[in-house]
Design brief:
The complex is a heterodimer. By secondary structure, chain A is mainly β. Helices cover about 0% and strands about 55% of the residues of chain A. Chain A is globular, with a radius of gyration of 13 Å. By secondary structure, chain B is mainly β. Classes of the chains: A mainly beta, B mainly beta. The interface between A and B is medium-sized, with 23 and 26 residues.
């Protein structure tokens, strides 16, 4: 069965500092991994994906994520946080070509202090 | 930039009533989905739809639920007889096919359904 874990309910970081939002996953086949961001009263906005290829993927707004197969992780990173990055971040996984169903983590609230 | 839209943004209904939630997916997308998020819980998959039929559904998607693409632009979710536990935010999503595979899904802003 597919599953996603986001171990931190909230991450606090000062503006200008690097940020990491953690995600680990479990699938039986090849993982397709995604990060989404949700701002208040808005839908889920796609940030980036890993399907295959380079383990470091770059996405919108300066975010990137590193796929680590041995640790079954897909952590979201940004070198320098902005106050406007404050939002709820969701990691999601699907089992490669076997299904289109996304399994979401519980979400991590990122709070960037000025 | 094209977006998925959903109406209404908030729907209040009485238990036992039928509701229809509406979505307009991105125009060149061929795969459509419904998810829901009960307050304080995870976003959960309900159903996916391709080529005018359900391609996959979860155990949540029982006989009370149905989906339809009534015309070339709308995608609807119907709940026949709402229960209190159907209260949730319902998200519609769509994705395009690239070489026969659907990758990222683009989500609408959601419809908050409150069943009283």
């Amino acid at each position: 069965a597919q599953s996603v874990a986001q171990p931190e309910d909230q991450v606090n970081v000062a503006e200008g500092n690097p940020l990491t939002v953690k995600c680990t996953y479990s699938v039986s086949g090849n993982p397709y991994l995604f990060w989404y961001v949700q701002y208040p009263n808005r839908g889920l906005q796609f940030l980036l994906k890993y399907i295959t290829g380079d383990n470091l993927v770059k996405g919108s707004y300066g975010f990137e994520a590193e796929f680590n197969k041995s640790q079954t992780s897909f952590h979201l990173k940004k070198p320098s946080a902005l106050v406007s990055d404050s939002a709820l971040y969701f990691c999601a996984v699907r089992d490669g070509g076997a299904t289109n169903k996304l399994i979401f983590g519980t979400g991590t609230l990122l709070a960037v202090q000025p | 930039e094209p977006e998925v839209t959903q109406t209404p943004s908030h729907q209040v209904t009485q238990m036992g009533q039928e509701v229809i939630l509406r979505c307009v997916p991105i125009s060149n997308h061929l795969y459509f989905y419904w998810y829901r998020q009960i307050l304080g819980q995870k976003v959960e998959f309900l159903v996916s739809f391709y080529n005018n039929e359900i391609s996959e559904k979860s155990e949540i998607f029982d006989d009370q639920f149905s989906v339809e693409r009534p015309d070339g632009s709308n995608f609807t979710l119907k709940i026949r007889s709402t229960k209190l536990e159907d209260s949730a935010m319902y998200f519609c999503a769509s994705s395009e096919l690239i070489s026969g595979t659907a990758y990222e899904q683009y989500f609408g802003p959601g419809t908050r359904l409150t069943v009283t």
